[in-house]
């Protein structure tokens, strides 16, 4: 009986361990469906807050700008992907910008917090407010398990093995050219993994390797008011997934501090958004529509952003 009990206990422990492993694997596979939708990040990074994605944009505008962002998959079920964002950027001098960029991403039992400090340098070129901008962000990336979302034995070895992996050093490198009418940028994100091969086992797919974008603002002055249309084209190289092309339009009614935008993503997503931009504050709302086979699993995502402009003397242009 002692032998039977011994082997029975060993078998039970092995089965529990394997079940935990299969559970984590299954959850990861299930999350890969909504994660495809999360390949489209905060829509605000294309027009409202380009510093979200590119450190070269920190401190380009006067004063201190603080942005809060919230992005969630529309379906209300446990483990729904949620992203929260805080950015703060400050124009220290005409040529130097400083920034702080914090993103918290939760998907089921997985959670990732990324905190970056930014230094940007802006080189004036000539008239039309032309500048060449360089930026570098550096900080900590901490992917881990969200233990509060786990229903089961938290002492299981498979869970502990994943959660014991330490946070790692990460960063982004950005370059941009800006003027009153034209914008172009190139970004090397996720330097910790993409360049220094840190924590490769944590995130081997669905991460951006390279990003480029450009846009041109077309002004219309007529009896209706001061209007502008800004087409945008972007390209994202993704590891383990088809590279993504983005195309956008931003229609602004400057006299009313109001903008309407549409963004198409080649991974069967289409985003619509509105923005109210005042001298001391701004707010934007976007909804990302999902098409194609993935639409059977999600109704899309919604995004809300709030900006506070402190010590900012510039008026909405």
Write a concise synopsis of the structure shown.
It contains three helices and 15 strands.
- CATH class identity: Mainly Beta
**What's the total helix number?**
3
As a percent range, the share of helical residues equals: 10-25%
- Give the count of structural domains: 1
Shape descriptor: globular
Low-confidence stretches: 1-9, 18-38
Describe the fold and architecture.
With 317 residues, the protein is α+β, with helices and mostly antiparallel strands. The protein has a single domain, classed as monomeric porin ompg (Porin). 15% of the residues lie in helices and 50% in strands. The chain has 3 helices and 15 strands. The chain has helices spanning 2-38, 157-163, 191-194, and strands spanning 64-73, 82-91, 96-107, 110-126, 130-145, 168-178, 182-188, 207-216, 218-222, 225-239, 244-253, 258-265, 269-277, 281-290, 301-310. It has a 14-stranded antiparallel β-barrel. The chain is globular, with a radius of gyration of 22 Å. It starts with a helix and ends in a 7-residue tail after the last strand. The relative contact order is 0.16. The model is unreliable at 1-9 and 18-38 (pLDDT under 50).
């Amino acid at each position: 009986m002692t032998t039977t009990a011994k082997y029975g206990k060993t078998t039970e422990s092995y089965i529990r361990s394997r079940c935990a492993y299969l559970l984590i694997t299954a959850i990861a596979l299930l999350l890969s469906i909504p994660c495809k939708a999360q390949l489209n990040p905060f829509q605000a990074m294309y027009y409202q807050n380009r510093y979200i994605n590119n450190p070269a944009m920190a401190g380009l505008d006067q004063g201190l700008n603080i942005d809060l962002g919230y992005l969630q998959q529309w379906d209300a079920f446990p483990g729904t992907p949620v992203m929260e964002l805080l950015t703060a950027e400050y124009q220290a001098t005409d040529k130097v910008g400083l920034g702080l960029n914090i993103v918290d991403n939760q998907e089921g039992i997985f959670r990732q917090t990324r905190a970056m400090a930014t230094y940007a340098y802006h080189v004036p070129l000539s008239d039309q407010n032309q500048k060449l901008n360089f930026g570098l962000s550096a900080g900590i990336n901490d992917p881990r398990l969200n233990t509060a979302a786990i229903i089961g034995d938290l002492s299981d070895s498979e869970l502990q093995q994943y959660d014991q992996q330490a946070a790692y050093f990460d960063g982004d490198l950005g370059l941009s050219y800006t003027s009153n009418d034209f914008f172009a940028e190139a970004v090397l994100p996720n330097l910790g993994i993409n360049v220094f091969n840190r924590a490769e086992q944590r995130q081997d797919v669905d991460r951006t390797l390279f990003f480029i974008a450009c846009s041109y603002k077309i002004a219309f002055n007529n009896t209706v008011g001061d209007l502008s249309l800004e087409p945008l084209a972007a390209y994202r190289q993704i590891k383990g997934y088809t590279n993504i092309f983005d195309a956008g339009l931003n229609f602004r009614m400057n006299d009313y501090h109001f903008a309407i935008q549409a963004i198409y993503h080649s991974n069967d997503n289409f985003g619509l958004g509105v923005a109210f931009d005042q001298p001391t504050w701004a707010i934007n709302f976007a909804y990302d529509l999902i098409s194609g086979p993935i639409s059977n699993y999600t109704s899309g995502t919604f995004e809300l952003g709030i900006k506070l402009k402190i010590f900012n003397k510039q008026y909405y242009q």
